[in-house]
Amino acid sequence: MIEETYEGVPRNKIPWAPKIDYDKCITCGKCVDYCHNRVFEFDEKDGEKRTIVKNPNACVVFCRGCEDICPTDAITHPSEEETQKIIDKLKETKA
Ligand code: SF4
Ligand code: SF4
Known about the structure:
alpha+beta; two-stranded antiparallel ribbon; 21% strand; binds iron/sulfur cluster
């Protein structure tokens, strides 16, 4: 099940999601199989299959699991420190 809030903050306001470096990605599909939240999907562009981040908001805040299993280090996430700052700010705004 996908969480709609994180620490009381709407999930869609938190910029935590994987990013794929297409210079490194070999479209092996390991991340597609690995992520239970179905963040990744295969797509076709100009007749070529590629892996995309289809559901960024389904990514579990502060999870980095797919980074570890990607064989070419093509996946990155934002800085945890910066993301936590954004979350703290959003919490303050709400209060
Ligand atoms: S695991 Fe890495 S190389 Fe494989 S499809 Fe995903 S991003 Fe691309
Ligand atoms: S970090 Fe975790 S939840 Fe987010 S896409 Fe990767 S495996 Fe899925």
